[in-house]
Amino acid sequence: MMKIKNRNPFKVPKGYFNSLEKSLLKKNQVNFNAGGFKIPKNYFNELEKEIFKKTIKISKLNNSKILKRALLTFSGIAASIIMFYIITNPYSVTPKSYAIQDKEVFEDFIENYYLEDFESYEIFSMLDENEIQATFVYSSKP
Amino acid sequence: MTPQSLFIKALKHPDSRDEAFSRLVSEYKERLYWHIRKIVIDHDDANDVVQNTFIKVHINIENFKEKSSLYTWMYRIASNESLNFIKSKASKMGLKNQEWIESLADGLIADPHFDGDEAAIILQKQVAQLPEKQRIVFNMRYFDRMNYESISEILGTSIGALKSSYHHAVKKIKIRLNDEN
Prior knowledge:
Chain A is mainly α. Chain A has helices spanning 2-6, 16-28, 43-88, 94-116, 120-125, 129-136.
């Protein structure tokens, strides 16, 4: 008898109590704007649009921030790899640059050597008439 | 997985976020707006706060741990945003929060977005005189007919404290209304 008394024989459908509140609210038709407050016509549609506009802007801003951050990280890594390479191999870059510098110095020397003792009239004396003409007559057309 | 967990997953996933967020906005925009409106009173202010609320939801959805329901979490954000808004607005005007709210309630009669009768204006003025938290509890219980469990989750206050707060609020309003009559 005691056992029978303590057991509840009634059952409810699964998830009944979760949906109960919602259905009761619907039946009661809770008036959220109770109290006399009003809104402009079509306000909620405009509000939705405004919210989407703002969130899209924020998403774009976040994406560009992510892109910028990725670029900065990438260039930072690249710079540090180059620095590391230069520091650990100090002679790997220099021989080539030495060779280029040597070549330039040598060509300058030859040019200066030839021009050092010449006056301008001497230079002209080495040119024929056509070459002199071409030097003085400027033509805008090639 | 519950439907809510699936929905939150959709909100967190970049591919489905926009569509899920659109559903979220259309489902909750009105409730959140009215909740905020009753706290900040002015329509333009409520418009700013409701937009900020949804933007905060959009930004922080990835950090939402599902310890409470999504609805509760959004209401909490809306409540905090509203209170912060009042604080900043009042300090800009050089007023206390309470003074700012009372001044708004006093101006309701001339507000184009208010069409309540005399009784509604008197009630709003009395509600505006309640302390901040008590006012929110009163609004949620009296106007929105929320149960104490939901209010407790949203405001992070015990049910006992809420019941007492609501009881005191009703008592104060009744006394003041009697005095006015």
